[in-house]
Amino acid sequence: MAMDEVIWGIVGCGAVTEVKAGPAFSRVAGSRLAAVMRRDPHKARDYARRHDVPRWYNSLGDLLRDPEVNAIYIATPTNSHCELTLQALASGRPVLVEKPMALNASEATRMVNAAERADRPLFVAYYKRALPRLEALRHVVQSGELGPARCAVATHMRPRRLHPRQAWKLDPAINGGGLFVDAQVHTLDWLDHCFGPPRDAQALVRSLSSSGVDDLVTYSLGWDAGQVASGTYCFGAGPRTDNLTIYAAKGSVSTAILSGGELVVRWDDGEQELRPYADPPHVHEPLIARVVEHLRGGRPAPSSGYDGLRTTQLVDRLYAGFRSQTRRAAPA
C-alpha cells in the first residue's frame, strides 16, 4: 500500500549520515526524518540536536516502537546490516540499508528473503545509480552516441597516508574486506546498472601489508553482449586516482566514480568535449527521492535488495581465490 508520507528513523548516526545522507531525508517532498538511534545516548542526543530531529533512542527496540516512524534507514557497519535489516523488516517497515549490503551473499540472501516474507520493500544505498552525473554517463553509453560500448576501465589509487578515519573499514570481519569492498563496490554496482550482471568474473587480490587486509585488487568482467571491463585498485599507491572510462566504437567517455567532476567525451577524430555536472551537496538525495517516490506508489527505485544481492554475489566470486589462499572464509 502506498504511503502518504514517508517518515524515517535512522539506525546508526555515523559519518555517512552527517552530510551525504541524513539531511536529505527531510529535503525530499513527502519525506521527513523523525527519529535517530545510536547505542551511545550522548551521541544520539547530540546528533538529534544538531540536525533538528524530534526524537532519539539508544536501542533499536525503542526506535521500532515509535508509532510515527514507518521506514528505516540502516547506516551502521556492514557486519550488523543483516540482523538489523531482519528486525526492521519484521516490524513491518521498508528498509534502506547502506552498502555494502552484507558481509557475504548468504547474508544478503537472508535479507532479500526476509523482505519477501514481510512483503516490504528492501533498498540498498548504491546512490550512484541515481546520481545525475553517473546517470548522464549511463545515458551516453546506452544511447549509442559513441557507438557500441566495447570495454570499461576503472582505476582507483589511494596513497596509504590517506587512511580512513573509520578503522573498521579495514577490518574484513566488520566490513567484509578492505577499502575495495567498501568503496569499489560502487563501481561494480554501477557496471551492473549499465550493462547488467556480468557472466564472467575473475580477480587477483593481494595484501601489501602485514595486516593481511586486501589492499591491491585487479579484476576482469565479461558480458554476454560482448563488453568487458577491467579494474585496478590499490591502497598504497599514488597519486590519488579515481577514473572510469568507457571505450566505444566512436570514442570514449570518462568520469570519476567516487568523487565529483565532469564527463569527458573524446571522439575518435581527436575532438574532446567537457560536460560539467555538479553533484548535489547531499549525494544520497537523488536516490532517497526515488525510494520515497517508490514508497508513495510511484516508479520503482533503481537500487533494490536484488540489485544489492547481485553485487554482493559478485564480490564473493572475485574474492573466492583470495579467501582460499589465505584460508579466510567469507566473513560470517
Kindly describe this structure.
- The chain folds into 2 domains: 6-128 and 284-303, NAD(P)-binding Rossmann-like Domain (Rossmann fold, 3-Layer(aba) Sandwich), CATH 3.40.50; 132-279, Dihydrodipicolinate Reductase, domain 2, CATH 3.30.360.10.
- Strands 8-9-10-7-11-12-13-14 form an 8-stranded mixed beta sheet.
- It has 10 helices and 14 strands.
- It has helices at 15-18, 41-50, 60-64, 81-90, 105-118, 132-143, 172-175, 179-195, 285-295, 305-325, and strands spanning 6-11, 31-37, 55-57, 71-74, 95-97, 122-124, 149-158, 200-206, 216-222, 228-235, 241-248, 251-255, 263-267, 272-275.
- The chain starts with 5 loop residues before the first strand and ends in a 7-residue tail after the last helix.
- It has 332 residues and is of the alpha/beta class.
- The longest helix has 21 residues, at 305-325.
- 33% of the residues lie in helices and 24% in strands.
How is this fold's topology laid out?
Layout: E1 6-11, H1 15-18, E2 31-37, H2 41-50, E3 55-57, H3 60-64, E4 71-74, H4 81-90, E5 95-97, H5 105-118, E6 122-124, H6 132-143, E7 149-158, H7 172-175, H8 179-195, E8 200-206, E9 216-222, E10 228-235, E11 241-248, E12 251-255, E13 263-267, E14 272-275, H9 285-295, H10 305-325
Parallel strand pairs: 1-2, 1-4, 2-3, 4-5, 5-6, 7-10
Antiparallel strand pairs: 7-11, 8-9, 9-10, 11-12, 12-13, 13-14
Helix pairs in contact: 4-5, 5-10, 8-10
